[in-house]
Amino acid sequence: MVSHKEFVGAGKTPGLQVWRIENLDLKPVPKALHGSFYTGDAYLLLFTTSAPSYNIHMWLGDECSQDESGAVAIFATQLDDFLGGGPVQYREVQNFESNTLVGYFRSGIKYQKGGVASGFQHVVTNDMNVKRLLHIKGRRAIRATEVDMSWSNFNKGDCFIIDLGKDVYQWCGSQCNRFERLKASQVAIDIRDNERNGRAKLHMVEEGEEPAAVIEALGPKSTIAPGTDDEKVDTSNRKKGALYMISDASGAMKVSAVAPSSPFKQAMLSAEECYILDNGVDRNIFVWKGPKANMSERKAAMSAGQQFIKDKGYSNKTQIQVLPAGAETTLFKQFFIDWKDKDETTGPSKAYTIGRIAKVEQVPFDASTLHSDKAMAAQHGMVDDGKGKVQIWRVENGAMAPVDPSAYGHFYGGDCREQHIIYTWQGLRCSQDELAASAFLTVKLDDSMGGSPVQVRVTQGQEPPHLMSLFAGKPMIIHSGGTSSKGGQSQTSSTRLFHIRQSSSRATRAVEVEASASSLNTNDVFVLKSPKAVFVWRGMGASDEEMAAAKHVVGFLGGSAAQVSERKEPDDFWSALGGKKDYQTSKSLQNVVRLPRLFGCSNKTGRLAVEEVPGDFNQSDLATDDVMILDTWDQIFLWVGNDANAVERNGAPKIAKDYVDSDPSGRRGLPITTIKQGAEPPTFAGWFQAWDPKMWETDPLARVFGRV
Fold it and tell me: Which residues form the Gelsolin-like domain (predicted)?
């Protein structure tokens, strides 16, 4: 086996590792710069979960050389070999990355001009002498591409970031819509917080209102071009796939047809063979490696996929996924009408287990163990093990007020807080003054510590597990409104309800929700405190970890709690909630094999396009100017935003029907429920933790701009 010195630590601890090809060798990229790619280079990425299971991505920039793309392919094969042939391998091309890769970088992928050949290095710096222009594209998967500093690169339909070091300007074209502005601001905030350590100032600029500094940087303004159509594949019309068997029995690789179009049956895959699932019209090729296929076929899987693309005349932007048996992705499984994972069936021929690709075991709830789950560390930003000294301040009257250590782990929706590694936590309903004060105090605190701390800005509901690990085994408790100062902004009500859920990344939150039976969810645990009693309600799909977290909430609220099981509730439980009401009773969230998927449907470009939301989704991913499809496998929800245009609204039922009818797995006759923004029933809202019915009372754009 060929090994490389960089492989010594590869896959040893869960998380994301990134290398760039430099002089045909591997050079690691600093963590702070993960998600930033030079367009003249090739990169190798390894994502490791705690199972462990592995994803290998080879990323090719538009201008990378033949030698570099050849070298990264060789290193990917060697790394796959080093890890025992178990990883899923992805071939990624600039601008056409898989949702898996995009999901690692929720604040967007940045493409920088140049590369190793022209002397550009990946160095973490506070350098303020920056001058660059970034073109922001994408509503779900955000991509920021560096272009020449010239007005000729602007258009009215997109957002651009003019990065001048100390000042970062987000320029919004007159045809650019609200959701795109919202997403572009995530990139701008990321530049300020991560690349400049909070020391840059953000400015929002509308087309036609450019300040003198922007004109000085770009020269006299010329005519701005109209918006352009995004070259996105219309995935609402997913074509059928075709299935081929590949074999080298004759001495040369041979491809033979198994089935001309999906849906396929899982029994078509023999454990002794390798297969290509051809979805090339949608720029996807899957190579499936049977566990008993011969070693030369298994090792040649990626090159077989690349040769297949050439032979078929497909675009060189086509994504390739190489899948060992037992590690199949959702995108692959959707082409099979009867797919069952190995814990549900004997599989293609007979039962087999591949340890390194086993499902991630759910560990008992203990926030202090979150730091060792480095799988999540990469995706959710764990920076250390969370055992250092913790100090928390509340922003009060524009100054920093220390929080009593006994209240650590409790956050109030009306607060802004800071922490070191400096976290600035911002409640969804905190005031503009508090937002501004927290930004100022973060820089002040950073300066007092010599300008070295890492700064992380956190919005309520999107807390990284590292922040949650600081509370020593307790869940994070988020209170409604108010403030953690004694006698805060608002009085707590006499009846309070806390919703406890462990997310797919194993972070447990207890969020105060409206004290109504409609807030309940069969998959979760709730703590109800009324003037007369305290109840811990366990839904039929709730986990032991969520029950353990409930003890901490009860400990804070005080009193002795009565345990209540779903469907065995006493009358005084319902009366405390104001009577029985409908709530989310679908058990689909339990032991989910097929994770729910969220798609945005938009015809902003003049034709209907459907795009998946990458990574774990939340309520803020619902774009108010679009129609969204939530696919929970056994039913489809169509969510219509208030600002969706007439074409999207009127076409919504057809969008959903086309989505189901074009499903490669052959699912038919699913119930399709159409829902309007602001009138979401529990059966829909239950898929989002701590659904906030008041979220849209404040403009999401104003909320984010308030944070800058």
Answer: 26-101, 142-214, 258-332, 400-468, 508-550, 610-684
